[in-house]
Amino acid sequence: MSNTRKPRVNPLSRRPRQQRLVMAVRGGAGVGKSHFVRSMAEANLGRLCIFDVERKSRLLKGNGTIFDGLEIEHPDELPEFIDWALSGEGQEQNYGCFALDSWASYFSAKHSEMVAAVRERTNDPLAQPSAEELAADQMILQGVLRRLCIESGKSVVIVDQIPAKGKEAKEDNEVGRVLPMTASGLEYFVDIMVEVSLQERDGEIVRVFQIVKSNSPAFEVGFELTGTVTFSDFINHMKRETGDELPMETPRPASVPETLEEKPSPLSLVPQALTIQELIAKAEGHGFKVADIVTGAKLYHNQTNIYRLTPEQIADLDRRISARIEKTNAASRDDKASASKQQQQGATGNETNARAATAAARNIKRA
User: Fold this and answer.
1) How many domains does the chain have?
2) 192-201 and 204-214: which strand pairing?
3) What integer pLDDT is reported at residue 280 of this predicted model?
4) Residue 144 to residues 74, 80, 227: CA-CA distances in angstroms?
5) pLDDT tens across 42-83, in order?
6) 255 preceded by cis ω (within 30°)?
7) Handedness of CA 307, 310, 313, 318 (dihedral sign)
8) First-to-final CA distance of the chain
9) Residue 85: other Cβ atoms inside 10 A
10) Whole-angstrom Cα distance, residue 70 to residue 50?
């Protein structure tokens, strides 16, 4: 079994080194959402990969040459395709940006499967998922958005659909915000949300891209681009507003290593284990007998044969003998100190008596 440790990531290496734009594009059928997605291939971001749930990328010019439109035949394939592109063999294609066309198609297909499962479980052909089931379903499906919008680290466009007028409000009341829930899932993962529509302005029908939700200071809610709008137009606007502090095309060179070097731990000296022969010699050198060691082995370790003591048990007996030796030495030092003090007191008393006798003799002579 390998003991190799996974290298520790240097948190400072995760400071942003490249600018990117993650956006959701919502709109009705036929307003040009897919053509806008194709424009990513000409934004100098690298090769574009479109995860085509609606299987319409075949209608876009350049599929297979300037970009790859991968048809998703079954919704369950989408997470597998994303894993292939981000962390599997698809990394060899060096994709520089991604698009999902469309989130609503994927969401509605998976949601329909859940509704069918609920009706089969309850044996009720009109049963609807509960609010808890809808929330759980949304959390699972949002794993797709998390992988694309966050983990990829690339510019991403998520295409979503706006239902026909009045349908959204109708479904709000009947099935608990099914279609609005797709939009609420998007807004947590994108920098901006754009609604595309065809409007009459000055007597002409023009395509309008309007910011309806924004997490970026470069794009205010209500900001509009009109006409033949491409992904590059949004990139250029962001550059004008935020400057070129972070490059868009290629990452800025790393200034710190991606992993932290493992510092070698300081070497510690492991004391050599004491043998039973060394313990016996130490004990006898301080006035103990082998019988004392045998008694200690029985009392503290339930071992009658001292030659079967483990190194830990020998070390324990050594600590106990060392404590006895220190206690004996301390008592001996106290006795010596007491005797020395008594001798000093005796000498002082004798000297005092001698001085008294001398003084008495002098007094007698004077008398």
Assistant:
1) 2
2) antiparallel
3) 87
4) 14, 10, 31
5) 999 999 999 999 999 999 999 999 999 999 999 899 999 999
6) no
7) positive
8) 109
9) 22
10) 6
Task: Give residue for tokens 């990969």.
Answer: 49
Task: Dump pLDDT digits (tens) for 22-47.
Answer: 999 999 988 999 999 999 999 999 99
Cα(204)–Cα(177) distance, integer angstroms: 35
Encoded tokens for 296: 């200690």
Q: Are residues 241 and 314 in the same domain?
A: no
Task: Assign 177 to helix, strand or coil.
Answer: coil
Closest CA to 42 of 233, 207, 212, 204: 233
In 336-347, which positions are buried (b, 16+ CB within 10 angstroms) versus exposed (e)? eeeeeeeeeeee
Residue 3 domain flag? no
Is there a single domain that holds both residue 199 and residue 59? yes
The residue among 228, 248, 268 that closes a domain is: 248
DSSP-assigned letters across all residues of 298-334: HHHH--S-GGG--HHHHHHHHHHHHHHHHHHHHHHHH
Contacts of the segment 87-90: beta carbons below 8 A, 24+ positions apart: 90/49
The mean predicted confidence, pLDDT, of the chain is 84
**Residue 10 exposed, middle or buried by CB count within 10 Å (0-12, 13-18, 19+):** middle
* Cβ-Cβ contacts under 8 Å for 257 (sequence gap 6 or more): 10, 13
d(CA 245, CA 238): 12
Residue of 222, 218, 219 whose CA lies nearest to 208:
222
Largest distance between two CA atoms of the chain: 153
Q: Report the pLDDT value the prediction gives residue 21, as an integer from 0 to 100.
A: 96
Domain of 36?
18-248
Q: Are residues 286 and 240 in the same domain?
A: no
Q: What is the pTM of this model?
A: 0.66
**Tell me, what CATH number does 128's domain have?**
3.40.50.300
All residues at 6 or more sequence positions from 363 whose CB lies less than 8 Å from its CB, including other chains: none
